[in-house]
User: What shape does this take?
Amino acid sequence: MNRQRSFIGFIVPGAIALLVIAIAGFYWFFAKSPANLIGSSSQPGAAIFVSKLSPVMVSFLANPDRLQALGREEELSKLKTSLFAKSGIDYKQDIQPWLGNEITLAITTLDIDRDLKNGQQPGYLLALSTQQPEKSREFVELLFSKRALAGANLAVEQYKGVKLISDNSQPERDLLAGAVVGESFVLLANDPKVLREAINNVQAPDLNLTSSPEYQKATKQLPKGGLAVAFLNLPIVAKWQGLELPEQLYNSQIISLALNPKGLLAETTFLTSSEIVPPSPPLSKPVGALQYIPASAGLAISGSNLSNLGNSDVAKLWKQATATIYGSKEDVVSRLAKPLADVQKRWGINFPEDIFSWVQGEYAIALLPEEQTTPHWIFVVEKSEAVEQGVTRLDAIASSNGLSINLLTIDKQKISAWTELTTATKKSDVKERASFSIETKVRGLHTTLGNYEIFTSDLETMDEILTTKDNAIIDNPNFKDSIAAIPLPNQGYIYLDWTKSQNLLERQVPILKLVEVLGKPFFNNLRSLTVSSYGTDTRSLKGGVFFKLNNS
Assistant: This one.
């Protein structure tokens, strides 16, 4: 039997969906009762059941019933009902009376029987905290009695003082094992072996996750009152994906989710045994280059010193993370910034060598989405002697690619334009004779404003920068609220306006459409997200993603 498939079909999608929708529901509940919207504990108690070799553990640290708020109760009720729909269990009657303040889902092992001949069969463990042990025991008995009535063959055993119930189902049915451990947790798994190992982990503390030095260091980074937390053992996650990483700097990652008056803040910390060197000194305020990015931008990236980016720990993290998560060297950011990648290919340049190497001061990069065409781009960099030399080099590259350098004037501002002359054929009234016209295409522009050199993709974008100086993104209320949620000092921001960039993102990253379906209530109310890196620990890299929601 494919136990991985059967367990997923029964419980895993519902549990994950419950976490996703519950997180979205917190936003709606926040305005009504902010004092009650904090996690009951900063750390998951179910970690004692999980092996230190587990690749991933995800915990939700609040009772789902606290999410029933104005306009969301119906959706949550449907979800909780569908979670156990195949089992004949009624959530309100059979689970709600005893369910406590923690739901933890873990992949406990990469292969239950450790037999490679029959393929990998990961072990899944779902731990539900209970506030009424007797009622939760009644639930487990009821759950398996219903399965027996449906034709399953039940097996009952006592294992180290714990009653384990499992079924020997037919191949077309779901395999399930369950137990109530002590006075605190109901455990459900896709194999009795998973439950036995969970009990072993409790009775031999050096086996469980709480004894892992990596986990102990990671949990120290957790904020108080977080709503959800996830821990990833990165080398084992990579092994799970069948990947051999050429370079592995970070050993583990912990993610927490907490409420903010303006939205949700997801913080993550990557831990390493090596010394981390930041790519540039931290910034105590947003860079001045943002004053030249229009508020219409859908994506804006800002910071300082691109010259060391390729060798920085941030870059190493990105390579490791994208290979681990996506199983490919091609990362999502490359897809999002495809207009810039197209420029690199068309001109035959290498961004790190030909541009980033001379950007040692402030910078800002932005995309202005268009519905029907390729997004326009903006690149702003603080002037220096190295920048002047870099611009001269770009002019030389443009000339070598057959482009002309022409001076233009827009609103009394002198602009240098890289242009290309092309011919267009027109029909002629004279038989067998054609007429030609010469067209000038702008391939890029740059100009100096204040202490910054500004590069754009086209005349319209440059004109917007020059004529809308009082409508910069740095003055946009939504942007200001978003960066206010990010601690200072930091390494700069990646800001994505979801409402303006949704169509672009869906075209470049098709899997997002599936993600949106799974988290529809959340994405329907997502206004923007902001990413930043911060923290001063030399053995960890800390950052956060702030999700700003509509009407917040």
